[in-house]
Fold:
Amino acid sequence: MTTTISTPAPAPAPAQGTRPVYKVTALRVLRSEWAKLWSLRSTWITLGLSVLFLVGFGVIAAVQFKSRLDSGERMGGDFAQSTAVSLSLFGTMAAQLALGVLGVLVTAGEYSTGMIRSTLAAVPRRLPVLWAKAVVFGVIALVVATASVFVTFLIASGILSGTHAGMTLSDPGVVRSLFGAGLYLGLVGVIGVALGALLRSVAGGIATLVGALMLVPGLISLLPTSWQDNISPYLPSNAGQSMYALTHDATSLSPTAGLFVFLGWTVLVLAGAAYRLARTDA
Amino acid sequence: MIEVRQLTKRYGEKTAVDGLDFTVEPGTVTGFLGPNGAGKSTTMRMIIGLDAPTSGTVTVNGRRYAQHSAPLQEVGALLEAKSIHPGRSAYDHLRAQAYTHGIPRRRVDEVIELTGLTSVAKKRAGKFSLGMGQRLGIAAALLGDPATVMLDEPVNGLDPEGVLWIRNLLTSLAADGRTVFVSSHLMSEMALVAEHLIVVGRGRLLADTTVQNLVREAGGDLVKVATADPGRLRDVLAGPGVEITGHPGSEQLQVAGLSARAIGIKAAEHGIALFELTEKTVSLEEAFMDLTRDAVEYHGTTEALGRAA
Structure:
């Protein structure tokens, strides 16, 4: 209760002068979303899983590769062509699921629990909430993923040194690839946030995310070949892969083009989310 | 102060709120009454901008809620539906809300203490009992030290101690000079705290009045008198604003517009013996039922069942 108001009963309104001056600012909304994210156990668990997938799968892939190489076992075409970069990014597919799902939970989770009513009561202009969530979670996903892939690469390159797959950070394209993977995973997180806000359903958001990143590329192979070549490189998953692939050929985009196409997808979903958030009842 | 003007909300074919017009003044507790489905919650959601009106306007202290630079300082709202993440502790929930406005940690501790949540503040809110959850909602509503406090069915699910606590809280908030707007579908509960009443049914305004007026308009404050000489008593009591009814040949009269005390004194002055002098106050509950009879969405069907049997 206020201690500042001492006027007896029929005071017209709490005196303006004695009340503290509060104000909603973009920075404060960011601060609030940051606090919200870290105060949930699911955040820690899911981020932990992402790190585990990235580092664990990458290191296991490198160890497997080395042991097969040492034992002289024949390896399948793709695996034989591996580099220290491709091996250490082995966990990207699994990590994108974890980060994407957590992104969906950041927004859709508020709708399923009812928290959104508190959130929008505090920030009734609404859009700052979406931007803050996208920035906070995008940056966290980016930092966690980038740090993980660099750590993984350092471990993997140690394991692989001396083999034909061995590489170091100073080799051309390596640092770019690793940053590309971190950026890709950060943007997947943002897409998750946007999908959650657009669909307002945890299940719907996750299904759409998995469909777009993992199922659509498979379905595209049902199309006539000439169509495939025109469409395939621009799919979110393939454009994303171009961002962190060490090399690219005629059927895939350059890293920069891949980045822009993937950014385009992100902006598209985010715009849809902003439209729905601003226009429809919470 | 909340000003609602021609507020209308339609969901497809269904009109939830239909041209509502009322003002909620500071310094008193205003009850917002209506049967289930009358549009109370929808109106409250529109006040804080969760739902957009189909037409009409609603302003809080002169502006739309979203146009205020510190909304939580204008209106603190407890909505009927749960508005927390069950995985977050009460403390973290309030802290996150506070961050958006730059409300200091000290204030978070204050509202936790005020609502009696100190011992459970660090526990996950999903584990809270209904009453604890309600207290957390009220803590959140009071966080910004708001000029207007709006609570949707605050006593739902509370134990008697909690109900009493809410009543005292509402009264003290109004005494502070705040605007207090509380919804309920229980007239008896409102009668204990509210001075002013806004009654709605099927989205329409049925009454915007004080508790006393509502009772009077519903035919309350009737006094039943019985005397050996009703004709003379009639003449004695007659005056402006006094209405007397009675059956010829009966010793009984119904008097409206005079208190039992005044009737007794006048009768004594004229030496008329009274056999009976009873104030027949219509209960608020009856007044409310009268008012909303046509507006109830879901009538019980006991009558039909009774006839069938």
The CA atoms of residues 241 and 257 of chain A lie 11 Å apart. The two ends of chain A are 30 Å apart (CA to CA).
